[in-house]
Automatic annotation (TrEMBL):
<dbReference type="GO" id="GO:0016740">
    <property type="term" value="F:transferase activity"/>
</dbReference>
<keyword id="KW-0573">Peptidoglycan synthesis</keyword>
<dbReference type="InterPro" id="IPR005490">
    <property type="entry name" value="LD_TPept_cat_dom"/>
</dbReference>
<keyword id="KW-0961">Cell wall biogenesis/degradation</keyword>
<keyword id="KW-0133">Cell shape</keyword>
<feature type="active site" description="Proton donor/acceptor">
    <location>
        <position position="125"/>
    </location>
</feature>
<dbReference type="InterPro" id="IPR038063">
    <property type="entry name" value="Transpep_catalytic_dom"/>
</dbReference>
<comment type="similarity">
    <text>Belongs to the YkuD family.</text>
</comment>
<feature type="active site" description="Nucleophile">
    <location>
        <position position="147"/>
    </location>
</feature>
<protein>
    <submittedName>
        <fullName>Murein L,D-transpeptidase family protein</fullName>
        <ecNumber>2.-.-.-</ecNumber>
    </submittedName>
</protein>
<keyword id="KW-0808">Transferase</keyword>
<feature type="domain" description="L,D-TPase catalytic">
    <location>
        <begin position="35"/>
        <end position="171"/>
    </location>
</feature>
<comment type="pathway">
    <text>Cell wall biogenesis; peptidoglycan biosynthesis.</text>
</comment>
<dbReference type="Pfam" id="PF03734">
    <property type="entry name" value="YkuD"/>
</dbReference>
Amino acid sequence: MKKVIMALLLLIMAVAATYALYPISAKLPKNTTFDQLEVLKSERKLLAYSKGKVIRSYNISLGANPEGHKQYEGDNKTPEGTYTIHDKNPNSGYHKNLGVSYPNVQDKAAAKKLGKSPGGDIKIHGLRNGVGFIGRLHRFMDWTHGCLAVTDAEIDELYAHTPVGTPIEIKP
């Protein structure tokens, strides 16, 4: 039984390594700037726009409880609404990240009515440091605490082309 389990683990690791090495489609020119991001939660897509055109589409993982708008800290939901990219962290525990400006005034008021904290630290991030080899396999489930997860190569691209202040609309 142990040999079968070990063989399966090795197979999974080999497949994961293949997916992790699979490159993003053609490289973007260095002067490309994403000026708007749109998330379609039900489709598990993040669309990156430049000058009104979709330049990239990324498959994403969401919070472990993905349906509905984030209401409070610990609900494992990904927020819905209009926010901005308000910071960039090259030294994240999840490769790199882009900070999403959740919670806004309405989010704080709604959580207060529930007697709870709205939470925060919603990010677009790569994979936890040390497990980047999983690559695209992370998309088989929603696993974050409310963040939007992409591969490490994808967050590298998003990080390079998305300035602080970029609007992001997160739709159901």
